[in-house]
């Protein structure tokens, strides 16, 4: 699943995956200044981090949506 965010002409995306080969969940965060990858052994930990990340983005004025512009 992929979520897109925008702010002041910048964009980023967050992708949640299950990687079968290593049996891990992961978040790939594509930020304007580079990507980062976080790995988790279970879905609950991954979802918890996703909620935390979404709250951080909202606090920093990132808007969720394809272009980061709310309707």
Write up this protein:
By secondary structure, the chain is α+β, with helices and mostly antiparallel strands. The protein has one domain (2-64). The chain is built from one helix and five strands; from the N terminus they run ββββαβ. The protein has one helix spanning 43-59, and strands at residues 2-7, 10-19, 24-31, 34-40, 63-64. A five-stranded antiparallel beta sheet has the order 4-3-2-1-5, covered by helices on one side. A hairpin with a 2-residue loop joins strand 1 (2-7) and strand 2 (10-19). The two termini are 22 Å apart. The model has no long low-confidence stretch (mean pLDDT 91).
Please write out the topology.
Elements: E1 2-7, E2 10-19, E3 24-31, E4 34-40, H1 43-59, E5 63-64
Antiparallel strand pairs: 1-2, 1-5, 2-3, 3-4
């Amino acid at each position: 699943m992929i979520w897109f965010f925008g702010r002041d002409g910048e964009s980023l995306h967050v992708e949640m995956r299950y990687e079968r080969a290593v049996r891990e969940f992961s978040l790939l965060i594509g930020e304007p200044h580079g990507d980062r990858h976080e790995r988790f052994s279970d879905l609950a930990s991954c979802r918890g981090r996703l909620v935390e990340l979404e709250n951080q983005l909202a606090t920093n004025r990132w808007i969720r949506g394809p272009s980061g512009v709310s309707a």
